[in-house]
Structure formats: C-alpha cells, structure tokens
Design goal:
The complex is a heterodimer. Chain A is mainly α. Chain A has twelve helices and no strands. The longest helix of chain A has 31 residues. Chain B has a single domain, classed as P-loop containing nucleotide triphosphate hydrolases (Rossmann fold, 3-Layer(aba) Sandwich), CATH 3.40.50.300. The chains are: A mainly alpha, B alpha/beta. Chains A and B meet through helix 1, helix 2 and helix 5 of A and helix 2 of B.
Chain lengths: 264, 255
C-alpha cells in the first residue's frame, strides 16, 4: 500500500524552495529595480534603440553580479536546509538540482518580469528578443558559476569573495586583458585567437550576440568587430548559443560533482 | 541494524574518526559520549551519509548506504542545531517532510507533535521561533514517521525542563518498541535513565562500547557521570574496556 502511494506521488521539492526565495524580499526588490529601470529607460529615451543600449549595460553588468551574489548567499543560507534534506531519503543529485532549478527559476522570473515585460511592450523586435535570450543565458551561466564557487568553498566569506572576484574578472578585467594581448601581439594574425578568447567569457559573448542584432557596430568592442567579420551573423549566433550552453552546463555539472562528494 | 566497519575520516590534518567499528542492534539505546570534538557528530553524520568516510563502510539493515538514499526512510534524525528555511512556516515544513517521506497517515506518529503543542504555531515562520521551539520542531519531525532507527544529536539541549521530560518519556516509549536509538549528550544524567549501552569516543578513537550494567559493575559507580569520570581519569586499563558481547557480531566476525 505504501508502495502504491510512493509511485503515485511525485515530490516537488523546488516548489518549497521557490516559495522561500519569493518570500525573501531581495528577489522582489531585484525585480522592481529591473522593471523600474527598464520602464523609465523606454519612457525617457525617444529612440528605442538607445534605451536598448542602456538596458544592454544593465543586462551585461548587473545581471551577472546579482546572479552570482544572490546564488552564493542563498546557498550558504540554505546550508542547514540542505543538511535537513540530506538526512531525508533524497539523493544528493536531486537535492542539488532542486536547489539549482529553484534559484535559476527565481532569477529568471525576476528578469522576465523586470526586463522581459517592458522589452516586449516597447521593443518586441529581433534585438529585444536577443536581449532577453542573452539575459536568460547569462542568468543561468552565472547561477552555475556561483554554485560552483559556493559548493567548492566551505567558508561563506571566501565563497562570496570568489564570486565577486569572478564578476570583476568577467565584467571588467577580461576585456582589458584581451586588448593587452592584442596590442602585444599586433604583428601576428590574431583573428582566430581572438574568437577563441571571446568564447571564454559569457559576458563578452552576450555583448556580441546582442550587438549583431542591433546593428550598432560602432559600439562593438574590438573582439566583437572581428567576430562579425569572421562568422557573419547566422553561424555566429549558433556558435554563441552553443558556447552559452557550455557555460551553463559545465560549471553546473562540476558543482554537482563536488556536491555529491562533499562533507556537510 | 547499523554496522559500521573500520571507518576512517580525516578533516584536513585532524583525524576525526579513526578505525571505528561497531554493530548496533534494535532494542539498543546507545549513548555516544566523549569530549567536545571527539567525533560524535561526525560519526552520526557518517551514518546519515552527510560525511563521506575516507575508508570503511556503513551498512544499514544489511545494505551499504552509498547504494540508495532510501535507507534514510528508516531513520529519524534530530540535528544538534535545527535550522530551517527562514520564510517557511512550521505547517509548510511538516507538509513538505510528509511529501518527502510519502508515508500514509496511519504510519504517522503525532505524539510529540501534539505534546509540544506544535499545531498552535503552524502559521509562524521558522525565523520567528526561539531556539527551544526549533528543538521541539526538530524532535517532532524526528519521531513523526515512526522510524525503526532514531538518531538524536544533543536532543535535550535548549529545551525547558518540562519539554525535556516529555522528550525523555517519548524516548523511553520508543525504546520499549525495540527501536534502535543513538543519542549524544553532554548531560549524562539525562542519559542514564534511557540508555542500554555506552559508546565512548576520544579524539576520534572508540575507547569502548559496552552495556551500561557492565560499565556500572566494572567501575563500581552507579551514576553514569562518575563512571565516565573514572575512565577519563584513566584509573582502569584500556584492555578491559573491550566488550566482547558487543564487538563480536552474530556471524562471529570480530570487528
């Protein structure tokens, strides 16, 4: 009898975690922040594409930062909850995936409500959709990276510190390094190498992806310009999507691997 | 019911558990005693699969615990510090745990749930509860599914005297049902009414595992705390402290 109940019922652990996250005011504040800035940008700028450019900066800078910070802090705050789940008849894989999907869904929800709705109202074209795709991909990728940082380091301050450093690296330092390399080796043909470099940073990739849609090559970084020359838009987009998937899944699977072996 | 075989565990440089082997059967109430940092909680967490040992195996009901997380259906665990999602309400916590265990209502043991008056706080978010009330929630959860194995880590710490007595009565009642109960506590007077066996850990090593009666006879002390104090002072040689009754399991294998 117990068995029949077991097979009938499907546990929905993420439901409870998402509920907890939503009750936490941070995610609401984040949604409101995104919504108000997106809305006001579209209302203030006469030109829709200029509003899109401002939004692009939010998506490329704020989104990764919030995803990293929120995910690491959430992970450390749910440490005891994870312990509780571990004492229950649940596998570690399932606990990890529940945590991951709950955080990812909450952040994606905030993004889609905060940026998705204004973009779909004011700029429902190719560049708007590209922005939403990139925003979703970046949210997921940085959620994965944050999980990896948090699972690997037991100490809270250290984990959050690593997440912050990663953000500095991806959002600020990386472009500088790329330029430095390009200047240093400017005598050599660097195109292919640069393409390789840009796929090593999801924020860079996201920027290129949106820029290709927006047709504002003046604002494209040096890497972006090369990217377009080399690929043309169609194949480049496929490539971007593929690399984004790698950025989402590899850190996530690495985090899962560590989580399965970890002492709690 | 639980068999632990040659468990070793190192945290960085510190040896948390060193060659721990033991065999726990139903009907036993085992007190895990030892100084702070002697590895009691680590041993418990190893049995629960939260800590992965460097070497050695743990079997519950004859099955290795790595194979299937479902063995934890048989275990009720009360952690040392029960922390729960801040925004989750007490009622939701219980609903969630029932959803996880998927036990039908006839197997639910509401005894502590009612005695600790948890129905009156079902609407409160977990973050508003005091430490003692959280302990009550943890205790009610550990006993809720009427599991054959109970693992209680410092169960009475933080409880008021009345609730402490309620919990002890409950443990005694479960003992009569021939369950296997593992308890850690620093309050030895709490334990001596409950336990049948004492497992003494020191610096990750198992000093002895023996029946309470034997322990009392050998030390000449009735009070558990005095008996333990004698051992800690080293007034009795180690070799006497290997209890053959327990260390030789049924199939004659010596651990």
């Amino acid at each position: 009898m117990v068995k029949s109940i077991k097979s009938k019922k499907m546990l929905r652990l993420p439901r409870y975690i998402v509920y907890d996250i939503i009750r936490n005011k941070v995610i609401i504040a984040y949604t409101l922040f995104l919504f108000i800035s997106a809305f006001s940008m579209f209302r203030m700028e006469e030109n829709g594409s200029r509003a899109m450019l401002s939004l692009l900066n939010i998506v490329l800078i704020v989104l990764p930062l919030v995803s990293l910070m929120f995910t690491t802090i959430h992970y450390y705050n749910s440490y005891e909850f994870i312990e509780l789940m571990l004492s229950q008849p649940l596998s570690r894989t399932r606990i990890f995936l529940s945590e991951y999907s709950s955080v990812a869904l909450s952040l994606l929800g905030a993004f889609w409500i905060g940026i998705g709705i204004p973009v779909l109202i004011f700029s429902p074209d190719a560049s708007g959709l590209a922005l939403l795709f990139t925003g979703s991909a970046l949210t997921l990728a940085f959620t994965s990276i944050a999980f990896l940082a948090a699972v690997r380091s037991k100490d809270k301050a250290r984990g959050i510190g690593i997440a912050l450093l990663l953000w500095f690296y991806f959002a600020l330092i990386y472009d500088g390094i790329v330029l430095l390399i390009l200047f240093a080796f400017s005598d050599y043909p660097m195109e292919k190498f640069t393409l390789l470099l840009s796929s090593l940073n999801p924020i860079d990739l996201g920027r290129i992806f949106i820029m290709l849609q927006m047709d504002v090559s003046a604002l494209m970084g040096y890497t972006g310009a090369l990217y377009r020359d080399f690929f043309g838009s169609g194949a480049g987009l496929l490539f971007t999507g593929f690399i984004m998937l790698i950025w989402i899944f590899i850190p996530m699977l690495m985090a899962l691997r560590s989580f399965r072996k970890k002492d709690m | 019911m639980i068999r632990v075989a040659s468990i070793n565990k190192k945290f960085r440089k510190a040896q948390a558990l060193e060659n721990i082997s033991a065999d726990f059967e139903c009907g036993q109430v085992i007190a895990l005693i030892g100084p702070n940092g002697s590895g009691k909680t680590t041993l418990i967490k190893t049995i629960l699969g939260m800590v992965k040992p460097d070497s050695g195996t743990v079997e519950v009901k004859g099955k290795l615990i790595d194979a299937d997380p479902l063995y934890r259906n048989d275990i009720g665990y009360m952690p040392q510090i029960g922390r729960y999602p801040d925004n989750m309400k007490v009622g939701q916590l219980f609903t969630m745990m029932k959803a996880i265990r998927q036990v039908d209502d006839s197997h639910i043991d509401n005894d502590l749930f009612l005695k600790f008056n948890i129905p009156s706080i079902l609407d409160k978010p977990m973050r508003t509860l005091s430490g003692g009330t959280r302990q009550k929630v943890s205790a009610a959860l550990a006993f809720l599914f009427d599991p054959p194995i109970l693992i209680l880590d410092e169960p009475t710490a933080g409880l008021d005297p009345l609730s402490c007595e309620t919990l002890k009565e409950k443990i005694l009642a479960e003992k009569k049902k021939k369950k296997l109960i593992l308890i850690t506590s620093h309050i030895l007077s709490d334990l001596e009414e409950l336990v049948t066996h004492v497992l003494y850990l020191q610096e990750g090593k198992m000093r002895f595992l023996k029946e309470l009666n034997t322990l009392q006879e050998e030390t000449g002390e009735i009070k558990l705390n005095k008996a333990i104090a004698r051992i800690m002072k080293g007034q009795l040689p180690d070799s006497e402290w290997i209890d053959r009754v327990l260390l030789v399991s049924k199939d004659g294998k010596i651990y």
